[in-house]
Amino acid sequence: MIRQGLLVGFPTETVYGLGANALDATAVAAVFALKERPKFDPLIVHIADPSDLSDLVKDIPAAAKTLIERFWPGPLSLVLVKQDCVPDIVTAGLPSVAVRCPGHLMARTLIREAGVPIAAPSANRFGMVSPTTAQHVREQFGDRLSMVLDDGPCRVGVESTVISFVESPNGMATLLRPGGVPLEEIEAVIGPIEKSTHQPSRPSSPGQLTSHYAPRTPLVIADQDTTYNDHQRRGLLCLKTPTNAASFSAIEVLSESGCLRTAAVNLFAAMRRLDAIGLDCIIAEPVPEVDLGLAIMDRLRRAAAK
Known about the structure:
Layout: E1 8-10, E2 17-21, H1 25-35, E3 44-46, H2 62-71, E4 76-81, H3 88-91, E5 96-100, H4 105-114, E6 118-119, H5 134-141, E7 147-148, E8 161-164, E9 174-177, H6 183-190, E10 194-195, E11 219-221, E12 234-238, E13 250-253, H7 260-275, E14 281-284, H8 293-304
Parallel strand pairs: 1-7, 3-5, 4-8, 9-10, 11-14, 12-13, 12-14
Antiparallel strand pairs: 1-2, 2-6, 3-6, 4-5, 8-9
């Protein structure tokens, strides 16, 4: 189906993707149309094997090669200068492209069988909560999607970490989006990297827009000064079981043990469940910004910015 220019929903270790032939501009345009995604927001291209990267990019710096050897296949995307074969619609007209080799056997098998790289954002309407099961994808798109491959829930649960080698004038690696590979693990391999702290006028990778990953229900990140309206139906999204459970109409605990990796796996599904029950607001408790907690807080802040 990918070779025929059709779209396929498929699992990865991070979230479910909405895939099209990355070398077919018409097919990629259909991804933007189905998602209602603005064309200034570039896509990530997925490859079946790390050796396929050189077909899509012009140069691979030594630090990028080190990351590939350590983390691919896996939840890490690298932004590098693109080859001319990559259509401008994939990169939003930028001279660079984000590429990753997913750490999911079904995803890599799909790419290999298609015989082409697959451009794939998350399989949901633009700006909304990412899907971590095939059912989430079906709920979003119904019969407007040709096929949805189902391999159960995603085992990482948040999108890939995005590292750019084109942002910094000195060629230093730059973190554009925290994700499934913790920043600490990356810096342990290649040393300190720059962090993109500003909101770009033009995104150079997915996940950089201020508002993203958002439920329909307003989401607020709690702090010590948060006050509650007693007449509101509130839901709580928290790491561990709270002591003030009676204050909420519904509670989603991300990890009874406080494990941030388990919390990441459960994050989007928990947000979806709270969003589906007619609450007035969702209160999200902050988590420590270490390991995958950095990615969790990135998603919560963008969800709260709606």
